[in-house]
Amino acid sequence: LRKAQSKGIKVITYDADALPDARSFFVNQATPEGIGNTLMDEAARLMGGSGEYAIITASLTAGNMIEWQKAIEKRNAEKYPNMKRVALRPCDDLKDKAFAEATAIMNANPNVKLLMNICSPAVPGAAEAVKQAGRTGKVKVIGLGLPNENKRYVKDGVTDTVILWRVVDLGRLTIHAAAALAKGELKPGATSFKAGALGEFKI
Q: What does the alpha-carbon distance between residue 106 and residue 85 come to, in Å, rounded to a whole number?
């Protein structure tokens, strides 16, 4: 990305960021607090505010997921002192690996009450693990995921909650920002951005 910029190519990132000097703008799907607080509040609701839970993430080094985890930890410490995270495992964005990690977590932590999945392939992967372990209803499954991938697990009562930002709006905003940057209408130091019918956004 830095090489592209050095050749005069405009660079923006969206969904997951690069280092700030490698792009002009980052289009974020949601704030880390918005994602972290929503996940933690939902986990607390399902767990009655106490007990053990685990997180399955895509990668231990992905910048966006690290920010989400920090927000989850902060919310946990501030609002839910009786809830304890017992594991944080990466699944490399693979459903099968999420299944294996969820199975390992449940085996190592027999009292775990909830699996929180913060990448989309992990939600159905963890749900399948809970289903095959015969722990539907005993181990809750929540996460950031796509509706179609999780529909049958929701209907079967394995997955309680699927959370997602408006993906269509993220795509539209990204295109608006890219076009404006390419045309020279979006400049470094700008504090707001008008994105057509989506309205105005704070930068």
A: 13
Alpha-helix runs per DSSP H in the chain? 2-6, 32-47, 63-79, 95-108, 122-132, 147-155, 167-183
pTM: predicted TM-score of the whole model, two decimal places? 0.84
Interval 168-184 mean pLDDT: 96
In tens, the pLDDT along 54-102 reads: 999 999 998 889 999 999 999 999 999 999 999 999 999 999 999 999 9
| Tokens encoding 163 | 């959370």
Phi and psi, residue 13, nearest 5°: -120, 160
- Going by pLDDT thresholds of 50, 70 and 90, the confidence category of residue 17 is confident
Q: Is the pLDDT of residue 131 over 90?
A: yes
CA distance 179 to 181: 5
**119, 88 in Cβ contact below 8 A?**
no
Tell me the two tokens of residue 94. 């693979």
- The residues, ordered by sequence, that sit 6+ positions from 84 with a Cβ below 8 Å of its Cβ are 51, 52, 53
Q: Give the Å distances, CA to CA, from 180 to 21, 97, 188.
A: 19, 40, 12
Nearest to 153 by CA among 172, 167, 166, 139: 139
